[in-house]
Design goal:
By secondary structure, the protein is of the alpha/beta class. The chain is built from eight helices and seven strands. The chain has a seven-stranded mixed sheet with strand order 3-2-1-4-6-5-7, with helices on both faces.
């Protein structure tokens, strides 16, 4: 069973945290892309977020089924390790852990590798990791993850014996990174000449205990 654990804040909070308030529609589009890509590859999205972000995140691509993992106020690496453990406890055996500052890319290749027992990373251009795919919880590795740590690719190469390294993509965490992303293949389609794209709206199922919501909001 496949899962994508998506670590997310509301698009507005994500943009504010990165001092790019006008980028909220971009992060909304990236979240929608992750939800749809997960389903396209037979994976359930598990959104790891704080309770205050859940309503905003539930409104994005709402036709996409998803489940929820509540984030606790603990260090970042512990949060990642806890969410990974929760996914494996739920019975998933191929788990991708991702953030919302880079789009999904090569998920088919990643899940194929996981099914062969090979771990996967998608490097960020700054030395970090945009997503990591595992077949078992690896707390020793995940607890070492930290925002803006620049040696995560090297760390994963050291600690994961069988590892597939995918293409490098910029993660948008600054205005400079945003400009770099506009020139990359993985980001193609996320930018228009004058504004960021808005995702299409669909219907949702929510919960790690999941439930069907009422109708989608009007377009």
């Amino acid at each position: 069973m496949r899962a994508v654990v998506l670590f997310a804040r509301s698009p507005e909070r994500e943009a504010a945290a990165k001092r790019m308030p006008s980028a909220a529609p971009l992060f909304r589009a990236v979240i929608a892309a992750w939800l749809r890509a997960a389903h396209a590859h037979g994976a359930l999205p598990l959104i790891a977020c704080e309770p205050r972000d859940r309503e905003s995140l539930a409104a994005i691509a709402p036709r996409c089924e998803r489940a929820w993992i509540e984030q606790q106020p603990v260090p970042f690496g512990t949060r990642v390790a806890d969410a990974a453990s929760a996914a494996f406890v739920l019975g998933f055996d191929a788990v991708i852990l991702a953030a919302i500052d880079a789009p999904p890319a090569d998920l088919g290749t990643a899940f194929d590798a996981l099914e062969r027992g090979v771990a996967v990373i998608a490097p960020a251009r700054d030395g970090g990791v945009n997503f990591i795919g595992l077949t078992s919880p690896n707390r020793a590795l995940l607890e070492q993850l930290a925002p803006r740590r620049r040696d995560l690719v090297a760390l994963c190469r050291e600690q994961l014996r069988d590892l597939l390294v995918l293409d490098t993509t910029t993660d948008v965490d600054s205005p400079q990174a945003l400009e770099a992303a506009k020139r990359e293949r993985a980001w193609r389609g996320f930018f228009s000449a004058s504004s960021f794209p808005m995702p299409r709206l669909h219907h949702v199922q929510s919960g790690v205990m999941r439930h069907l919501p009422s109708r989608a909001p009007p377009a």
